[in-house]
TrEMBL record:
<keyword id="KW-0436">Ligase</keyword>
<dbReference type="GO" id="GO:0005524">
    <property type="term" value="F:ATP binding"/>
</dbReference>
<dbReference type="InterPro" id="IPR013815">
    <property type="entry name" value="ATP_grasp_subdomain_1"/>
</dbReference>
<keyword id="KW-0464">Manganese</keyword>
<dbReference type="InterPro" id="IPR000291">
    <property type="entry name" value="D-Ala_lig_Van_CS"/>
</dbReference>
<feature type="binding site">
    <location>
        <position position="277"/>
    </location>
    <ligand>
        <name>Mg(2+) 1</name>
    </ligand>
</feature>
<dbReference type="GO" id="GO:0005737">
    <property type="term" value="C:cytoplasm"/>
</dbReference>
<dbReference type="GO" id="GO:0046872">
    <property type="term" value="F:metal ion binding"/>
</dbReference>
<dbReference type="GO" id="GO:0009252">
    <property type="term" value="P:peptidoglycan biosynthetic process"/>
</dbReference>
<dbReference type="InterPro" id="IPR011761">
    <property type="entry name" value="ATP-grasp"/>
</dbReference>
<dbReference type="InterPro" id="IPR011127">
    <property type="entry name" value="Dala_Dala_lig_N"/>
</dbReference>
<dbReference type="GO" id="GO:0008716">
    <property type="term" value="F:D-alanine-D-alanine ligase activity"/>
</dbReference>
<keyword id="KW-0963">Cytoplasm</keyword>
<feature type="domain" description="ATP-grasp">
    <location>
        <begin position="122"/>
        <end position="324"/>
    </location>
</feature>
<feature type="active site">
    <location>
        <position position="302"/>
    </location>
</feature>
<keyword id="KW-0067">ATP-binding</keyword>
<keyword id="KW-0547">Nucleotide-binding</keyword>
Length: 328
């Protein structure tokens, strides 16, 4: 008997467009000999399944079921590919926990913490060999906070929404004249903003996942962007960024990065597949943690897909491991 899997996508934020692209890839790649897949679209006040005929079938939120004709469809598990809220910030995880349906991503607490960049850095701060850029977490856009930034931090700075994704609302500030506009842009996206000093170095992103009971660190991707930083355009517009997988690291760096990445995964009690972004500082080679994504993109060209293939695994088998792990 095939397991019935709900593939959840959509979302409440600007990342929904990326979520739909990821879901399209998962939907066509997933092993249909093992699973019946139902794509569930989740929008504010509108959770539904779209039938083959184009009929919009609402989800019964009492038990996360749908009714097709006379048949009531309930799900054995959820493949979560919903970036941003509510799929990545713990809201969906808490809902599925309450109704007793397993899912492929991190639990409610880990999802909520890791969605907040400042809180995440506080948790991982004591991991050996891991470094964190000096930063300030802001809860309001005031002149007092602007003065505090200038007194405590050194240019250039990265200013980013604390709970956002896909680098939406993020800016690099090189002069103090740019500070106000950058803060306005970030606060337009979130009520919390993280301001951190720029670390000069090479940027990488590395996938980590748990499958067959084991944590696996994938080959890292080096990000070489023609942009100032790895922003929304650099992430999703072809030709803007050169992504090198496996990234250019020596044996010592590979060993150290893999060690740190596994510790981050374990310290945050992650589940499923995550992607950790980091710098190797120019000169020192120190590992500087940037952020973690607990629902990383799964498009054809996404970093995780590249890394899975570089590891020597078919993406279809990778998805199977993620699904089977949630039932273990």
């Amino acid at each position: 008997m095939k397991k019935k899997i709900a593939l959840v996508t959509g979302g409440y934020t600007g990342e929904s467009v990326i979520s739909l692209k990821s879901a399209a890839v998962v939907e066509k790649t997933i092993n249909r000999e093992l699973y019946e897949v139902y794509k569930i679209l989740i929008y504010p006040g509108d959770w539904h399944f779209l039938s083959v005929s184009g009929e919009k079938i609402p989800v019964d939120l009492n038990d996360f079921s749908i009714r097709i004709g006379d048949d009531k469809i309930t799900f054995d598990g959820v493949f979560n590919i919903l970036h941003g809220s509510p799929g990545e910030d713990g809201k969906l995880a808490g809902y599925f926990d309450m109704i007793g349906i397993p899912y492929t991503t991190c639990d409610q607490l880990t999802s909520a913490i890791t969605m907040n960049k400042g809180y995440t850095k506080a948790v991982v701060d004591d991991i050996e060999e891991l470094h964190i850029a000096k930063s300030i977490q802001l809860f309001d856009n005031s002149s007092l906070n602007q003065n505090r930034i200038q007194e405590e931090l050194t240019l250039p700075l990265f200013i980013k929404p604390n709970n956002g994704g896909s680098s939406i609302g993020m800016s690099k500030v090189k002069t103090w004249d740019e500070l106000g506009e950058a803060l306005d842009k970030a606060f337009d996206e979130d009520s919390q903003v993280l301001v951190e000093e720029f670390v000069s170095g090479r940027e990488f992103s590395i996938g980590v996942f748990k499958g067959k009971g084991q944590v696996t660190v994938l080959p890292a991707t080096e990000i070489v962007s023609s942009k100032e930083f790895f922003d929304f355009e650099a992430k999703y517009v072809a030709g803007v960024t050169n992504e090198i997988t496996p990234g250019r690291m020596n044996e010592e760096e590979i060993s150290r990065v893999n060690r740190i990445a596994a510790k981050i995964y374990e310290k945050l009690n992650c589940k499923g597949s995550v992607r950790i972004d980091y710098f190797l500082q120019e000169g020192s080679g120190k590992f500087y943690f940037i952020e973690i994504n607990t629902v990383p993109g799964q498009t054809e060209t996404s970093l995780i897909s590249q890394q899975v293939r570089a590891y020597g695994m078919e993406v279809r088998d990778f998805y199977t491991q993620l699904i089977e792990e949630m039932f273990s």
